[in-house]
Amino acid sequence: MAKIVVALGGNAILSKDASAQAQMKAVKKTAKELVKFIKNGDQLIITHGNGPQVGNLLLQQNAADSEANPAMPLDTCGAMTQGSIGYWFQNAMKEELLNNGIDKDVMAIVTQTIVDEDDPAFENPSKPIGPFYKETDLPEIKSLHPDWEIIEDSGRGYRRVVPSPKPLEINEYAAIKKVVDAGIVPIVSGGGGIPVVKKGNRLIGKEAVIDKDFSASKIAQLIDADKLIILTSAGGVYYNYGKPDQVELKEVGIDDIQKHIDANEFAKGSMMPKVQAAVAFVRSTGNPAVIGDLEDVEQIIEGNEGTTIVKDAVPAAVK
Asked: Which intervals hold domain Aspartate/glutamate/uridylate kinase (predicted)?
């Protein structure tokens, strides 16, 4: 039985319709794909992003902010979205398992991720959250929220960005490992985990959103996962993406792909963190990581789709 950590983006849960009903429907569709790992005999660990959800929740909090009902801070909103998305996944996965004749427990775990209080990311917001805005919307948005940092997000529109410190440790990893060893399917580190810093015996929340791929990589290392799989709507990894000479990789060694990371050839808001997180896992464990499309899960399991990143320095195999 292979232990596989699967990381899902928040955009895979929320598209244009931000209602709970629409997101639950998307989660149910995703669960049908994820159950294929369990049917294959694998032990599954699920992580997910929350960028769209936490940004939308912040907007709701700020819109209702008053002295009697003050808005919740970003770290608490992160915990709230962990709970809601975890609830959706827990129920959807359990239902789909039973539909396939599999009686296996599923558990969502509110997860805290320890970060460095002096991480330079706190001074350089980079993590996109919330809805996409058109360029014509920007004057009004900046007028309403003069303290926001806004960037263009990978050709998809403009979004607010917040600090995104790197994870140092997953506070609940030992408990997560026990849950995995018991054969339970855990849903962990939602949105990268709630960012906290250690102060003696206390954990203090920080207003930030951790990249879920880095946290997934850290969890995969800590629980001795056999494979890290990062599922995205963009498919596998390309060299020269979007150019006439673009090449989709089938298998690549970490030394080869590191050269392209160092040359900043991947989009910072989308593919770059995925590739960096995958390389960190492979470098630490020697086990492979795969980046591929959610709709190709069956083919990824069979090794026919996605980009596999391995430790040995092999020439890049292309599709």
From this structure: 3-292
Compute the distance between CA of residue 272 and CA of residue 251 in angstroms, rounded to an integer.
Answer: 17
Q: In what order do the strands lie in the sheet with 169-170?
A: 169-170, 112-114, 194-199, 202-205
pLDDT in tens, the chain (319 residues): 899 999 998 767 876 788 999 999 999 999 999 999 999 999 999 999 998 899 899 999 989 999 999 999 999 999 999 999 999 999 999 999 999 999 999 999 999 999 999 999 999 998 888 888 999 999 999 998 898 999 988 778 999 999 999 999 999 999 999 999 999 999 999 999 999 999 999 999 999 999 999 999 999 999 999 999 999 887 899 998 888 888 889 999 999 999 999 999 998 778 999 999 999 999 999 999 999 998 899 999 998 999 999 998 665 566 5
H or E element that contains 158: strand 158-162
| Residue 155 annotated in active site | no
**Catalytic annotation present for 11:** yes
Q: Are 142 and 118 in contact (CB under 8 A)?
A: no
Catalytic residue chosen out of the listed positions 3, 11, 166, 287: 11
Buried b (16+ CB within 10 A) or exposed e, 276-311: bbbbbbbbebebbbbbbbbebbeebbeeebbbbbbb
Options 49, 50, 55, 127, the catalytic residue: 127
Three-state SS for 133?
strand
Give the pTM: 0.92
Task: Decide if 218 is catalytic.
Answer: no
Instruction: Name the active-site residue from 236, 269, 274, 287.
Output: 274
**Catalytic: which of 3, 94, 206, 212?**
212
Does 10 participate in catalysis according to the annotation? yes
Domain boundaries, the chain: 3-225, 243-319
The H or E element that residue 92 is part of is helix 74-99
Q: Which residues have a Cβ under 8 Å from the Cβ of 87 and sit 6 or more positions away? A: 108
What is 3-225's CATH superfamily?
A: Acetylglutamate kinase-like (3.40.1160.10)
